[in-house]
Design brief:
CATH class of the largest domain: Alpha Beta
Oligomer: single chain
Largest sheet: 7 strands, parallel
Number of strands: 18
Distance between the termini: 45 Å
Helix content: 25-40%
Number of domains: 2
Length: 483
């Protein structure tokens, strides 16, 4: 079997890591691979590759048409594999990073080529600028035309997703179940439970994240303000995206102003490796309000470290169904509504829903606001994770002025995984069984066989509007995801 893997770049990051895992997982299987990418990878990239400049991000790609890109992809794959690939395995084609790739893939599908469209992130999920760019450049403003290009439907066009939420959303949008595959990421960390030393005397709560906005840095700082003396809090990385830097720098200034016990970007300091930092931590923290796969809930257990912080049931319920124990998570961080003011919350909810929906060319429905407020507010408490930065800072300042008011929080402290030997051992075994590299390779080979064995049929299209309905559901609104 011959496979062409396609992605915009091979720079360090989540998708590149999955491509590297794919290469390792398929080694020795008899499958021939080539990776088609927009720019030269680093010197240690572990697979044959071909650079096609037209695959780069929109602002950097060469001036080309979709037809030019199809020809370049065919030539590069044929040059490396000797013939056309049996399958094109394409990552994040619909994210809005390149407006000629989706039409090029549509051409390939029309010609009967077998495709696996592996979606890690959706433009419909909090990326309205990407969505609009595709709508205007690819489809002349027609959402129906864009759905046709982004989401072709046929027996030889298959989709891969990371979690059950996205699986159900695509299923409801019209993907036939035989053409839809749950491809949970492998979880690999080059450290074992037995290698992890006990926590350092000065207790470190580590947030292993690149601190972009949806990671909800304000909530992490809140816990640093109320968790008491003798604890350190730290993040590992800052954001790379220039658009994310201003808010991040604002949080750093805020933490310094209030003398919060927080350090930033520990992993970037000389001598600090990511795994070493994991080993030093008493617990690893996540306060994110949205995730694609949820690696932060799984990876720490392989380092012998527990996870505490905010739960994301649409991600973690799937892990629990597999037997993974996550006892130190909370589903809401409730603060009294009166600390914010009900009128202010209402105004922010109205403005947030209008901005979120209008960014996708929609207007609020008659009960949208009621559904938002019902999700945000329970028993005169509002979930801290639904607030914007200004309101979050208001709450943190209040707690710093009067630490006793922390007793009104629910929970009133960051769950402290003081002793969790049983979850550590149970979770490590499940991760090794269900999320191993060899298991990932076996799943991929089976998916590849099914796709290559499918018959090419005429193209239809998924319902892009139904997919958008799911991602824009009022209950999912948080102000940290509204630009």
């Amino acid at each position: 079997m011959r496979i062409a893997i396609v992605h915009y770049h091979l720079q360090p990051g989540g998708v590149t890591r999955i491509i590297e895992h794919t290469v390792a997982a398929l080694a020795g299987s008899g499958i021939s691979l080539v990776v088609l990418t927009g720019q030269e990878p680093g010197p240690d990239f572990p697979a044959p590759f071909k650079v096609i400049p037209a695959l780069q991000y929109e602002a950097q790609r060469s001036v080309s048409t979709p037809g030019d890109l199809v020809r370049a992809m065919k030539e590069a794959a044929q040059e490396s594999l000797g013939v056309f690939p049996d399958l094109w395995h394409v990552h994040n084609h619909s994210l809005g990073k390149n407006t000629i790739l989706p039409p090029a893939l549509h051409f390939l599908a029309e010609e009967g080529h077998h495709l696996l469209l592996h979606i890690h992130d959706f433009a419909e999920d909090g990326r309205p600028a990407n969505y609009h760019m595709m709508l205007e450049k690819m489809a002349d403003g027609s959402k129906r035309a864009m759905s046709k290009l982004l989401y072709p439907a046929a027996d030889h066009v298959h989709y891969g997703v990371l979690n059950g939420r996205d699986f159900s959303f695509l299923l409801d949008a019209g993907v036939q179940i035989d053409c839809l595959h749950l491809l949970a990421n492998p979880v690999q960390l080059h450290v074992g439970y037995e290698d992890a030393p006990p926590p350092a005397p000065e207790q470190l709560f580590l947030y292993p994240t690149r601190a972009i906005r949806r990671k909800n840095l304000g909530e992490f700082l809140l816990w640093s303000a109320v968790t008491g003396e003798g604890n350190r809090f730290a993040t590992t990385m800052g954001p790379e995206n220039p658009r994310e830097r201003p808010r991040y720098e604002q949080w750093k200034r805020f933490a310094a102003e209030l003398s919060l016990p927080v350090e930033f970007e520990l992993a970037s300091r000389p001598g600090n490796s990511f795994v070493q930092l994991l080993r030093q931590a008493r617990g690893l923290v996540t306060t994110s309000v949205a995730e694609g796969f949820g690696l932060a809930f799984l990876e720490p257990w392989l380092a012998g470290r527990p996870v505490c912080g905010r739960d994301l049931p649409e991600i973690t319920d799937e892990f629990r169904d597999q037997g993974i124990l996550l006892p130190h998570l909370y589903r809401r961080l409730d603060v009294p509504v009166q600390w914010i003011g009900r009128g202010r919350l209402l105004d922010c909810a109205v403005a947030g829903q209008e901005k979120s929906l209008s960014a996708y060319g929609r207007q609020p429905g008659p009960n949208c606001l009621d559904r938002i407020l019902a999700a945000w507010i329970k028993d005169d408490n509002v979930d801290f994770g639904c607030l914007d930065e200004e309101m979050q800072q208001l709450v943190i300042r209040r707690l710093v002025r009067d630490p006793q008011e922390a007793t009104l929080l629910r929970p009133d402290g960051l769950p402290d995984p003081v002793s969790c030997d049983e979850p550590l051992e149970i979770n490590r075994k499940i991760l090794e069984q269900r999320y191993s590299l060899s298991g990932y390779g076996a799943r991929l080979r089976e998916v590849y066989r099914r796709i290559v064995g499918s018959v090419s049929t005429p193209l239809d299209a998924l319902d892009g509007e139904q997919l958008l309905n799911h991602f824009l559901a009022p209950e999912r609104l948080t102000l940290l995801r509204v630009d």
